[in-house]
Design brief:
Elements: E1 3-10, E2 15-18, H1 31-36, E3 42-50, E4 57-64
Antiparallel strand pairs: 1-2, 1-3, 3-4
Length: 71
């Protein structure tokens, strides 16, 4: 892949955050995204790929933010 873009959605398919087009497969979680995620809620993410590849989209994959176990 030449470029890729990472996108995070809620389970209603609303886009919460998207990266700029990246030339490297490394991405640090931005503070604005981290602060906007709710504990124990499921989210989806996918990667849009540009370049000489078989698949143009990878995902969607799911993740959730763990709650505080001490509460």
């Amino acid at each position: 892949a030449d470029r890729e873009r990472w996108i995070v959605f809620d389970t209603q398919a609303n886009e919460i955050w998207a990266s700029e087009s990246l030339g490297s497969p490394r991405l640090a979680t931005p503070d604005d995204l981290s602060r906007g995620l709710v504990e124990n809620r499921t989210y989806l993410w996918l990667v849009e790929v540009d370049g000489d590849v078989v698949r143009r989209e990878l995902g969607p994959f799911t993740f959730s933010v763990a709650g505080d176990a001490e509460q």
